[in-house]
Design brief:
- This protein has 154 residues and is an all-alpha fold.
- It is built from five helices and no strands.
- It folds into two domains: 121 residues, no CATH class; 25 residues.
- The longest helix has 41 residues.
Length: 154
């Protein structure tokens, strides 16, 4: 029974680590694969003309009175193009750093919980005896407290 618990715990930890590694690696790899296509689409003249039309529309809406004041974007290029060209490496490094640290910490938590749960199941006989002893001590303390409360009220 103990070997089976250890085996299941090892499999569960392995699954958690595999999920963490997949979350760490798959999104940057997918972005690397589609980045060139996206940049190619954003370098087309119609993409720039759509961005220019959007900025003109925002400029017209910013002159109107109303509950919402529009701000004209300052960039002459679409933000997606700027991000993919100038900040892509920074985004990948940030992803790997944050997901690596947070996912690694979460994996350690899950592994610790699994290790602690397996230890509790193995020592359930000791835990039951300890629980019975704690219960008897608590009842003794309750009786003393009740006696003190009765003395204090008098």
């Amino acid at each position: 029974m103990v070997r089976r618990d250890a085996f299941l715990r090892t499999i569960a930890v392995g699954v958690v680590v595999a999920i963490w590694l997949a979350a760490l690696i798959v999104p940057p790899v997918m972005l690397l694969r589609v980045r060139a296509d996206w940049l190619e689409q954003l370098d087309r003249p119609e993409a720039q003309s759509n961005w220019d039309a959007f900025r003109r529309d925002m400029r017209q809406q910013s002159d109107r009175e109303g509950p919402v004041q529009r701000k004209v974007p300052k960039s002459a290029e679409p933000p997606a193009r700027v991000w993919l060209r100038d900040y892509f490496r920074l985004a990948v490094v940030a992803w790997v750093l944050f997901v690596g640290v947070l996912g690694g910490f979460f994996s350690l938590l899950v592994a610790g919980v699994l290790r602690g749960a397996a230890g509790r199941f193995r020592s359930s006989g000791k835990a039951a005896a300890s629980l019975a002893q704690d219960e008897s001590c608590r009842q003794g303390n309750d009786e003393k407290k009740h006696k003190r409360d009765a003395d204090d009220t008098q």
